[in-house]
Design a protein that fits this description.
Distance between the termini: 41 Å
Low-confidence stretches: 1-11
Radius of gyration: 40 Å
Mean pLDDT: 80
Strand order of the largest sheet: 3-4-10-7-9-8
Order of helices and strands: HHEHHEEEEHEEHEEEHEHEHHHHH
Number of helices: 13
Length: 421
């Protein structure tokens, strides 16, 4: 009971001493409190700015559309006719998960085109022409000068052209746009069936419209129709592409640089494979139209990187300032330390009595700083980073307090009385 009474008396005496010291020099504690509040508010404000910039950058990433295409590096070659992109390349690009839409056009494929009679048999007419597979007909829409025109039967358009249909008792039949010249040679017209026979495959197609195009192309078929013909024969498509345009999913704009490196690697391997197979090995050029994205995002990314670096530096500086301020406050209490030692107060109790003030001021200060940040900046200013900053500041204060009290208590009272506060 006596020990408990002595302990309680010691604690109450210590608290009274701390209160009197804070009342004697309130400016010191107030300074420590304000410094803590200002630094924590500044860190919260900086974190809120980083969050705002990050959200703005993400919004721009989602808004900007990035497109691209694969072109022959040598524009003087005949790659636009013979092809320079292997069949596997678009599949590999789509396999990255970043490509949203893709427009493909095959190389000109030499084919025999045979007319069909009403009962589905051959009518004895045939023509030889180049056919081309397409995945989009926008470039073959009517043009003012009449250079390229595709006209469809009623109920057919650019969209239905790309889809399989059930026609004349035939399942999964695709349409074909045949040039007027080939139609005359076959004595056929829109609404008739024709057989397209090319290397590795053959299939029946429905003439759904007339193509007025250049002399080199006699018919246009959907890419999916070409692939279906190869599939029926159990063969892998072997044609090359002359066109590969694509757009990137805005959600994948963050990975544009990674996608560029992957695409260039795919094209380099494709060129080597074509060389080994004896196919046209024209070098392909990967063009990514990301200038708008670069111009909009790069300044924000640089600012964000600088702000994150500044935030880390500010956190470190705040922790050091907290430690230094605690040691400074304790150094100014040299005479109080000497008096406590002369009165016979133990070293541990002296350290406790001296260390409460800077720690209490730091706690009140960081609490005030966080409260002001919440009121002025909102909840987004508070988060894990804010808690880390708070913890670092308090850790710095505790470290400075421990070092300051140990240094003060270990000195002789006479030395402490000679210190000018």
């Amino acid at each position: 009971m006596k020990r408990n009474a002595r302990g309680n008396h010691g604690v109450s005496s210590g608290l009274r001493f701390i209160r009197r010291q804070m009342e004697r020099a309130p400016g010191r504690g107030l300074l420590a409190l304000l410094v803590a509040a200002v630094l924590l508010f500044g860190l919260c404000y900086l974190q809120e700015s980083i969050t705002t910039n990050q959200e703005e950058m993400e919004r721009l990433y989602r808004m900007v559309k990035v497109g691209g295409r694969i072109l022959p590096k040598d524009t003087g070659s005949d790659a636009s006719l013979s092809g320079f992109i292997s069949y596997e390349v678009p599949e590999l690009l789509q396999g990255t998960g970043i490509v949203q839409d893709m427009v493909l056009e095959s190389a000109a494929i030499s084919a025999g085109i045979y007319g069909c009679s009403s009962d589905g048999g051959s009518n004895g007419t045939e023509a030889s022409a180049f056919i081309r597979g397409v995945s989009d007909l926008s470039q073959y829409s009517p043009i003012a000068d009449g250079s390229v025109v595709a006209t469809f039967l009623p109920d057919w358009d650019e969209e239905t052209f790309l889809q399989p249909h059930s026609l004349g008792g035939k399942e999964d039949t695709y349409g074909v746009l045949v040039s007027s010249t080939v139609c005359e040679m076959l004595e056929a017209s829109p609404g008739d069936f024709v057989v397209l026979d090319f290397v590795g495959a053959s299939d029946t197609f429905y003439i759904c419209g007339i193509l007025t195009a250049s002399d080199t192309i006699g018919a246009l078929v959907p890419i999916s129709g070409l692939d279906a013909a190869y599939q029926r024969f159990g063969n892998e498509p072997s044609y090359l592409y002359t066109k590969c345009d694509f757009t990137i999913d805005p959600a994948g704009n963050f990975r544009v640089n990674e996608f560029r490196e992957t695409a260039e690697t795919i094209l380099a391997k494709d060129q080597k494979n074509r060389e080994n197979q004896g196919l046209p090995a024209d070098e392909a050029l990967f063009v990514l139209q990301d200038s708008e994205l670069t111009q909009a995002i790069q300044p924000l990314e640089k600012n964000l990187s600088l702000m994150r670096l500044l935030y880390l530096i500010t956190q470190a500086v705040a922790a050091l300032v907290s430690a230094a301020l605690a040691m400074l406050l304790l150094a100014q209490r040299a005479k109080d330390t000497a008096i406590l030692r002369v009165l016979g107060i133990s070293r541990s109790q002296t350290r406790w009595m001296l260390g409460v003030e800077p720690v209490l001021a730091a706690l009140l200060g960081v609490g005030l700083g966080v409260l002001v940040a919440f009121l002025l900046l909102g909840r987004q200013a508070l988060g894990t980073s804010c808690l880390i900053s708070l913890g670092l500041y308090l850790a710095g204060c505790l470290l400075g307090t421990i070092l300051g009290t140990v240094r003060a208590v270990n000195r002789k009272p006479l030395e402490l009385l000679q210190v000018k506060e």
